[in-house]
Specification:
This protein is mainly α. The protein has twelve helices and no strands. α2 crosses α8, α5 (80-86) crosses α6 (93-111) and α9 (160-169) packs across α11. It is globular.
């Protein structure tokens, strides 16, 4: 298989990212519809429940939580054992229940109300910094709140699938952890991209990681990115 200009050591990573984005958008169909239309505080809780949890289980945990406690104030003041029981489908409910209450109380103490709607008036950088001051909130969760909620802001989440594909493609070093990769990958995106395009970039890389470039047995020979992928070249003997 012939190498491409993207295999040159002088090729800019952002040029390669644009080609990756274009091919994957062709494969998975951009623009991709948003999968949530939640208020930002709902999205924060949903994102926290999803940590190390399958989507179906975290969604069930969130639905059960809201069915039992219709308001955030009720969740903030309820016995922690009741919160834990409500979110039982999520992994580590015994850890997430007290953390959830800690976060809600921190928001109310600082803002006087259990709402994150005020983030709409802040820059993305300032909003992410504010969110990441909350206990247990890192770059992935802060980006998810701004990107996935109805705020629809220009912030790039990076999950394990997204990160794996980016590392195999050589967009980021394999040694770079998921957390720090957020800033590196987002800096590669064109400044003129809107929130939908940033969301699409996350979604197509995530989908590709789930469907083709999976952890144990990546399907390199049917991958539309094989000629761009150093890890794929090694695996198939190019």
């Amino acid at each position: 298989m012939a190498l491409t200009l993207f295999d040159s050591p002088d090729a800019a990573p952002n040029q390669k990212l644009l080609e990756v984005h274009a091919r994957l958008c062709g494969e998975y169909g951009c623009p991709i519809a948003y999968f949530h239309d939640l208020e930002p505080l709902d999205e924060l809780v949903s994102s926290l429940l999803s940590h190390r949890t399958k989507n179906a289980d975290s969604s069930r945990a969130f639905r059960q939580l809201r069915a039992k406690f219709p308001t955030w104030d009720e969740i903030s003041t309820a016995p922690v054992q009741e919160i834990e029981a409500a979110i039982a489908p999520a992994t580590w409910p015994e850890q997430k229940a007290p953390r959830l209450q800690e976060i809600l109380r921190a928001i109310e103490e600082e803002r006087g109300v259990l709402s994150l709607d005020f983030l709409a008036e802040m820059s993305v950088k300032a909003a992410r910094a504010w969110l990441e001051r909350l206990p247990g909130v890192g770059p992935k969760t802060s980006a998810a709140v701004l990107c996935f909620s109805r705020l629809r802001r220009r912030a790039l989440p990076v999950d394990s699938h997204h990160h794996r594909v980016a590392a195999r493609l050589g967009l980021i070093p394999k040694s770079l952890p998921v957390g720090p990769s957020h800033a590196v990958l987002e800096a590669m995106l064109p400044a003129e991209w809107d929130a939908q395009q940033v969301y699409d970039n996350h979604e197509v890389l995530m989908l590709h990681g789930q469907r083709v470039c999976n952890f144990n047995a990546p399907a390199c020979r049917k991958c539309v990115l094989l000629d761009l992928c150093p890890a794929g070249h090694e695996r198939v003997g190019v």
